[in-house]
Amino acid sequence: MATLSDAEAIAQLHADSWRRTYRGIYTDEFLDADLVGERLGVWRKRLSQEPTNRFVCVAEDDDRLAGFVCGFADAHPSWGSLIDNLHVAIDIRRRGIASELMRRSGGWFAANASSSGAYLWVLEANAGARRFYEALGGTNAEIVFRKLESGNPGKVCRYTWPDASQLGATGR
Predict the structure, then answer these.
(1) What is the pLDDT of residues 116-131, one digit of tens each?
(2) pLDDT surpasses 80 at 10
(3) Domains, the chain, ordered by start
(4) What is the dihedral of CA 66, 116, 50, 136, to 10 degrees?
(5) Which of 12, 66, 111, 172 could form a disulfide with 59 if both were Cys (CB 3.0 to 4.6 A apart)?
């Protein structure tokens, strides 16, 4: 489980991931601003509060943050628990880290949520992430148009799993 001392590394990885993945989707003004500072505020707040229904797990590689996942148990009455963030450092992707983080999230949801399902939102334009979630057994349940974190509108897909304990079970 992540602690407040992980906030800075998580914010750095989160900002780097967004800048690399969302260029052309999020506004340049948003991505080129103090994104690390903005994300640091989010992660310090999250990690300084009692976790109640929140799960944040980090993966390390040679004493550095390799990836992280953040989820919220029972976030939606119909869809179940929410995977809010999943990011892995660019230079060590495709080593099974994301699949393992998803698997750990599923185990935590199965033990701590009253609902069995899980879901996440992914940008429609993020084809690589969509293929990854489909390889993990996720189903694209809907595509909606909504305001993105950067402030501009965009299409997002809701990927769902009826049984959170199966997250990561079929990962690559």
Answers:
(1) 999 999 999 999 999 9
(2) yes
(3) 4-166 (3.40.630.30)
(4) 10
(5) 66
Number of Cβ within 10 Å of residue 77's Cβ equals 7
Backbone angles phi, psi at 68, to 5 degrees: -155, 160
Task: Label residue 170 by pLDDT band (50, 70, 90).
Answer: low
Q: Rounded to an integer, what distance in angstroms lies between the CA atom of residue 131 and that of residue 13?
A: 21
pLDDT score, position 171? 46
Counting other chains too, the contacts that 51-57 makes at CB distance below 8 Å and 24 or more residues apart are 51/1, 53/112, 53/113, 55/1, 55/105, 55/108, 55/109, 55/112, 56/1, 56/2, 56/6, 56/10, 57/1, 57/2, 57/101, 57/104, 57/105, 57/108
